[in-house]
Structures are given as C-alpha cells and as structure tokens.
Specification:
GO terms for molecular function: polygalacturonase activity. Belongs to the glycosyl hydrolase 28 family. This is Pectate lyase superfamily protein domain-containing protein. Keywords: Glycosidase, Hydrolase, Signal. By secondary structure, the chain is mainly beta. It has a domain at about 5-260 and about 270-275: Pectate Lyase C-like, CATH 2.160.20. Helix content is about 15%, strand content about 40%. The chain is built from six helices and 25 strands. The chain is elongated and about 65 Å long. The structure holds 2-acetamido-2-deoxy-beta-D-glucopyranose (2 copies). One 2-acetamido-2-deoxy-beta-D-glucopyranose binds near residues 29, 276, 293 and 320. The site of one 2-acetamido-2-deoxy-beta-D-glucopyranose (NAG) has 6 residues, from strand 20 and strand 21.
C-alpha cells in the first residue's frame, strides 16, 4: 500500500512536470480567485469559549466567532484558527473575508444530534429537497452570499460522523434531505485546500450558484458503501448572479449536477479540482455547467471513477469540461457520461427540457482493477457531441483489459484508449478537438 502510494506520488509529480504548460494555464484561471492569503488578524476558537475535548459542544463558540468576524471586519479579513483537539459542534455558517484554518491534529466533528439539526429551504433549482420533499437539513459548514472565503489548514479534519445519517437513509427514516458537509450558495472566491474531509452525511463539497470555486490538495474519505458521499459536486444554474425568479423556480427542476469524481478512500498526493463555472442566462429558465477543469485526482474503491450525468427534464447544457490526470484503482466503472440517470426528485419534470452535452474531454487516465471501462450514453433526441477520450488506459483486475465500453447516442473521438473504444468514438479522429 505505502509503496504503491509512493509510486503514485512519483508518477503524478512526473506528469505535473511534463504537463507544466497545462498546469500553468490552469493556475492562471485562478489568479485573484483563490485568495489563499495571509489574513492580518488571527483569532482562535478558544477565545470564544471553544473546548477541544471531543465532548463539549462548541456550536455557540463557532457562531460567536463568525459573528465577531462578520461584525467587526478587519481590512484583509480574519483567520479563525482551530488548534489541535477534537471540536464537537453543530452546523454553523461562515462569513465573507474569513479563513477557517484547521491546524494539524484539529478535528472538527459534527454532532450526531440529527433531531435538532437546523433546516433550510430547498434549492430553488430543485424546488424541493433532493431526497425528501420540503426543507432540507443545513450543511454542516455553510455559506450563503459570501466572497473571499478560505477553508484550509495543515491536514486538519472535518468529520461529518455521517453514520447516523446513512443509517436513517438505509432504514428510510429520514425526515428531510440529508446535509452536505460543506456548502456554498451564491458565493464567489472560495478556496478549499489542504484538509481532510471524512464521513460526510451526504455530498462533501457542494458549491451551488457560485463562481470561482477552487478545491485543491484534498483528501476525501468515506466507506465505499456510504450512500451519496460524492466528493465535489459543483452545481448549477447560475443566472448571471441573480437568483432564479419565481417563474424560473417553477420551471425549477431545470438543473444540472456535474458529479465530478467521487473521491472515496483515496489518498491523492496532489489533487486539484478547479470548477470555473460561468453560467449564462441563455434561454429563460435554463442554465448550465461549463468551463470545468478537474485534474490530478486519485479515486480508489469507488463506484464510478469519473461520472458526468444529467437527465431529460433538466434542460440547459454541460459544456467544456476537461478531466485530466486521474488515477483509478478498484472502481466498478471507469468513466460514465449519462443522459438519463433517472434520479428525478419526483415525476413532475418536463420531457421537453432536453439537456445538451458538448465538448467533454477525458484525458490521461490510468486505471487498474476497473471492472467496466464505462459507458457513454447520450439522449436519442440530443446526442452528446465532441466527447473526446485521449490516453485513457483501463485495466481489469489482473492487468487484463477490462470489459467493453458501452456507447449510444454519442459522437466524438478517441485516441490511445484501452480497451478499444466503441465505434461511435473511433470514427472521428480528424476533427482536431481531441489530441
Ligand atoms: C445560516 O445561514 C442560513 C442561510 O443563509 C440562515 O437561514 C441561517 O439562519 C443561518 N444560521 C445562523 C446560525 O446564522
Ligand atoms: C474552457 O474551460 C476552461 C477552464 O477549464 C477555460 O480556461 C477555457 O477558456 C474554456 N474555453 C472556452 C472556449 O470557453
């Protein structure tokens, strides 16, 4: 295990050097966007009565600290320092111009007090909770309408203690949609790095209606059978920074979810997910996900390695998505791009809201223990276009090539793909967009 991880680190470092041009370009997208900067003021959670003994509930201390930072603003912002210790707390909000810093040995632990967990309105683009009708549980760490927020540290941990929530899901006793671990809404300039997220009740990081969200150097852990513990789930429908109007809310289920890699049980030496979302108000009520870059990830012991999905009923688009330099180990399917995943919250969706998927490149992927290379399944009335697989090598358990790809209603190109790509992609190499 240790040896193979070291091998991975070396391989990724080598790749990073080889592809430095790409790397620099990616970093340039984030200039001024990811302010992982020093803040002129640092306060400690202990100044607000926090006790890191693993038993004291610190919700009030965190809320007081954030209130202080919000109401006595310092130019350049404030760092809230969480020293080593186990800090049990309920859900709390962040504020603009702050850094939440988790020192080495610091564990921010969510209380398992599900009965008094705060509720909030469902996302307008869903019109209801993702799992249950009506309100949803607030995320453990939440931000709404913020700018310039950093969550970072020295390998500190945010532990969602999700087991109680997973069990409620398994026993069908959930009253409301489960909480995300970290969620930002209507925010911009968010940087999350250098910490470990584990055992999220639901999705780990959910930026929604956000711009300029950068997630780098993260380790995200959950048992492989934990339900819906997606790593980073960038969403959706951002209408030029405005909230959808009532009308659009009604069209409401217009939404996309780009389920960027489920990062489970993984230990990437260096993983970066840059989701640059620029959603434009193209047609009334429709939005999309575009300009997303995911690179340098390792995904271990998961269902899907790389998964992009949408549904009839969501409308809008997924466009200009690049996923590169990903290592997979022990996954059920390497790559899945799907246009009808069927997970509608209810049956009231519009058959005419057909999403388009265009210009998706999956490049430099190396997988072992991959049961199925994957499936690229578009929508009959709107085939996916310009899907490019380049240098994607997926092997089964004993260095055999994995089983065959499954494709339909998809057009694109493939270069250096193992096992052999399906005919839909093998056709169109001259087009230039897949090199
Ligand atoms: C946190 O933010 C949410 C959404 O903006 C708000 O409804 C809630 O009252 C806030 N909670 C606290 C404790 O400030
Ligand atoms: C595609 O997305 C990348 C970010 O991944 C961005 O830098 C680039 O400008 C986008 N291309 C177009 C044509 O919008």
């Amino acid at each position: 295990m240790a040896a193979s991880l070291r091998g991975l680190a070396v391989a990724l470092a080598a790749l990073a050097v080889l592809l430095h041009g790409t790397d620099a370009a990616a970093a340039a997208t984030c200039v001024g966007v990811a302010p992982a900067k020093q803040r002129p003021e640092v306060v400690s959670i202990t100044e607000f009565g926090g006790v890191g003994d693993g038993r004291t509930v610190n919700t009030w201390a965190f809320r007081k600290a954030v209130y202080r930072i919000q109401h006595q603003r310092r130019r350049g912002g404030t760092t809230l320092h969480v020293p080593a210790g186990t800090w049990l707390t309920g859900s709390f909000n962040l504020t603009s111009h702050m850094t939440l810093f988790l020192a080495r040995g610091a564990v921010l632990k969510a209380t398992q007090d599900t009965r008094s967990w705060p509720l909030m309105a469902p996302l307008p683009s869903y019109g209801r909770g993702r799992e249950m009708p009506g309100a949803r549980y607030a995320s453990f760490i939440h931000g709404n309408g913020l700018r310039d927020v950093v969550i970072t540290g020295d390998k500190g941990v945010i532990d969602g203690q999700g087991e109680v929530w997973w069990n409620m899901w398994r026993r069908r006793t959930l009253q409301h949609t489960r909480p995300n671990l970290v969620e930002f809404m209507h925010s911009s300039g968010i940087h999350i790095s250098n910490i470990i997220l584990k055992n999220s009740p639901f999705w780990n990081i959910h930026p929604v209606y956000c711009d300029n969200v950068v997630v780098t150097n993260m380790m995200i852990l959950a048992p492989h059978d934990s339900p819906n513990t997606d790593g980073v789930d960038p969403g959706l429908v951002h209408l030029d920074g405005r909230r959808p109007s009532g009308d659009q809310e009604r069209v409401g289920r217009v939404r996309h979810r780009l389920r960027a890699p489920e990062l489970r049980h993984h230990n990437p030496p260096r993983a970066r997910l840059v989701a640059v979302q620029r959603h434009r108000h193209r047609q009334r009520g429709l939005g999309g996900v575009r300009d997303v870059l995911v690179e340098d990830c390792a995904v271990f012991d998961a269902g899907y390695g790389i998964h992009i999905k949408t549904n009839v009923g969501r409308g809008g688009y997924i466009r200009n998505v690049t996923v590169s330099r990903v290592r997979l180990r022990n996954v059920r399917a390497g790559v899945r791009i799907a246009g009808d995943v069927g997970d509608h919250p209810d049956a009231r969706f519009s058959q005419s809201a057909v999403p388009t998927v265009d210009d998706v490149t999956i490049r430099d992927v190396w997988g072992v223990g991959v049961q199925q290379p994957g499936s690229l399944e578009g929508i009959r009335s709107a085939p996916f276009t310009r899907i490019c697989l380049s240098n994607v090598k997926l092997y089964g358990s004993r260095n055999d090539a994995a089983a065959a790809w499954k494709c339909r209603d998809v057009r694109g190109a493939a270069l250096g793909v193992r096992p052999s790509p399906c005919a839909e992609l093998a056709t169109n190499l001259a087009s230039g967009y897949c090199t």
